[in-house]
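Hi,

Apologies if this is the wrong queue. I'm a grad student, and the batch job for Branched-chain amino acid transport system II carrier protein from Propionibacterium ruminifibrarum produced an output file that my downstream script rejects. I'm not sure whether the problem is my script or the file. Here is the sequence I used:
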Amino acid sequence: MPAQTNPTGHVTTTGLMLFALFFGAGNLIFPPVLGASAGAHLPVVLAGFLLTGVILPLATIVAVSTSGEGISGIAHRVGPRFGTLMPLVVYLVIGPLYAVPRVVTVSYELATRSLLAQAGVEPGRWALPVHAAVFGCLTLLLALKPSRLADRIGHWLTPTLLILVAVLCVVVLVRLPAAEQEPAGGYATSPFRTGLVQGYLTMDVLAASVFGLVVLNALDSQGATDRRRTVSAASVAAAIAAALLGLVYLGLAMLGARVGGGDPSDGAGLLRGAAAHSLGGAGVVIFAAVVILACLTTSAGLLSAWSSYAATAWPRVGFGRQLVAGTVVCFFLANLGLGMIVRIVFPITLLLYPVAITLVAVTLVDAVAPGHLRAAYRWGTACAGLLGLVSALSALGVTAPSVLLARTRLWNDETGWTFPTLVCVVTGVVIDITGGRWSSPDPGLRHARTVSRRGGASR
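Support response: The file is valid. Your script probably expects a header line. Output copied below for reference.
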């Protein structure tokens, strides 16, 4: 007889896992900056931040679950070449070439280095390599069995992380009064847009396009086979993760609003100062534990997702070897320093993010009548990609296209692509409807959607 399962428990555990995968070091640092910088405009800033930092990633998880595919399957709806190149670049950027090495370095700077300083130990050249090696081994152990990732993270690491964050926030909110500070810069002149941009810079939509597949695999490993129930379960798990993210962001933002003095743009310094002021030496330890857990769960999810994708793309090299290779690459990049990597990869993210959001939006529309859209995908991604390229070039110092577009007074490098892309998507939908595609799905697209949704089977 098969063992009895608890569907509600599995969905809850998967939601907790998803929260932990999203909640990395960047997500920990951004909200206190909002609280320390927004002043009386904090509610408006938070509304914008939650829209792009929580609602959009939630929509991405839902889009992936309704499509039954990961970023690879969705990208193939634009075309075969795009469907091969886009996922590869996304997985590399949020995996071994940028996001994971950054997580390793950030966890060292915010946690290990602080603990060494508190213990009176001067961090030498040995400290970062030792930290990276230990961190890499722990990540490897967590990610080695993707089918058990939900249990390992959702049952144990996420509750521990939530308890530590709650203790830190509650103690600070109780012991420290709100600091009187006036909003400055964009927080004063355009608070909602500033919040939108800050949530946009978390880059969680790119991560969600990958984590959506992790969620589907986690549910599959628990015996979820019915398509409708799987979509429902994935949506509920995403809602649990989004609710937790929203609550934690709110607590951290209120924490930032209670820390006076110092640099309001230094989220790590704000958190470290608040913890030390409220809890003394114990606060520094709690803060370090929060950082390590947040970074560890994120790196395990990202490396597991990369290895699953790579094992499918190059099946002769299995999942385990891909995972070990990715971990080794992350170790060396973290020790070589991320300054150059950030300068190279940040423009790539400015190019990818508009395209990823556009794919998600069209996929949600396409869920109404699967397989009926073609021009909407192509027109939308072409516009988003072109304008994303303008932003990327501006980040590289090639500002002429951006300056030219700025003359319209409708352009900025972060969100200027949104309205033109929306127009192109709507135009594409109209073309698909008037061309008869709404009632006659393209057989080529139906064939493309038979590609395995897993991008690497759970092991």
